[in-house]
């Protein structure tokens, strides 16, 4: 059913019921929400189902509710949509609204709804070949342009939804192509946060230390503080909102690389242990050992870093954890057929071509698209290039 058909069907709903609902708008709020009338019922949204955001504006118009209230009910479902209806009218309205894809229930008026935590959702690219399909789903789900959806997905740490219910996240996950993305959730009120910034001015650093009641850190990746509570993070955000380069990130969404820096014994047992831990074939170990330091594993969540370091240490390998979310990568295009050159907007004389540094998700997607078009592409951490390299 399209929106025109739905609007037509609404106008064809039993005339008496429609008139009755219209009459509710003229009643006082007290009469509509009269909790002493046992025959009255409420409509509850259980799940966003297969509905699209346009459904919220239709319901807002139908029920005479603020669009913000309807959107909150939809994305934080289960939630009460409208209260105090006569059962017959409620059934007719639910019948029509169900055609929008929503999962709805009719419950006795005032029936309690069990509270559910609201969550934030972040996504990582798992299969670059499916990114376009996943982006289209996100764009439709959020009612935003496709380019904006892609920007959400490729801007670390990939926050897609904030302060929504588990039911809403499940509804989005059902629509996404299988294997396209890796989804992570976190309760924002229970989470810990990390503050990242560039070179903070002395006054700004003092503000951080006042919240922390301790000296702030100064890591090379811009990390200023870890383990901030939700309230501390909010206080800092009010202080630093709009300051260039400042990020407050839920630690649940941080991802790290394991960088192998040393091995105690370059033997078969170590090679087999590395294969078990990182999936690197044992026969490649000898060559890899000549390249140290080298990243051997990525995508490790913050909460798993300590255990992972111990796993490697138990097998005589020394690794360091390197924050990967905001690390920039450089792509170097060595050769490219016409299709890839068209993507780059250059001719063959420009090769080999070093592209500007990109954050990891964008570098991975760009590399996939170029290689799919037949290009030969190398990828390096941005820090490995001197200013004049590949000029």
> Rg from C-alpha positions?
27 Å
What fraction, in percent, of the residue positions are helical? 25-40%
Average pLDDT works out at 86
CATH names the topology of the largest domain as Ribosomal Protein L30, Chain: A
Distance between the termini: 56 Å
Report the sheet-strand fraction: 15-25%
For the record, the CATH architecture of the largest domain stands as 2-Layer Sandwich
Largest sheet: 4 strands, antiparallel
Top-tier CATH class of the largest domain: Alpha Beta
Count of individual helical segments: 16
Instruction: Let me know the number of strands.
Output: 16
Query: Unreliable stretches, pLDDT < 50, 5 or more residues?
Result: 1-37, 386-391
Q: Which shape, going by the Cα principal axes?
A: globular
Write out the CATH superfamily name of the largest domain.
Ribosomal protein L7/L12, C-terminal domain/Adaptor protein ClpS
Helix-strand makeup class: alpha+beta
How many structural domains in the coordinates?
Answer: 5
Q: How is this structure best described in words?
A:
This protein is of the alpha+beta class. The protein folds into 5 domains: 3-108, Ribosomal Protein L30, Chain: A; 119-186, Ribosomal Protein L30, Chain: A, CATH 3.30.1390; 193-252; 255-323, Ribosomal Protein L30, Chain: A (2-Layer Sandwich); 328-384, Ribosomal Protein L30, Chain: A (2-Layer Sandwich). It is 40% helix and 24% strand. It is built from 16 helices and 16 strands. The chain has helices at 3-12, 15-26, 29-32, 54-63, 67-75, 87-98, 131-142, 146-154, 166-175, 202-212, 230-240, 268-278, 285-289, 305-313, 338-344, 360-372; strands at 41-47, 79-85, 103-108, 119-125, 159-164, 181-186, 193-196, 223-228, 247-250, 255-263, 294-301, 317-323, 328-335, 353-354, 358-359, 376-381. The strands form 5 sheets. Strands 13, 14, 15 and 16 form a 4-stranded antiparallel β-sheet that branches. Strands 2-1-3 form a 3-stranded antiparallel β-sheet. Helix 4 crosses helix 5 and helix 7 (131-142) packs across helix 8 (146-154). It is globular, with a radius of gyration of 27 Å. The termini are far apart.
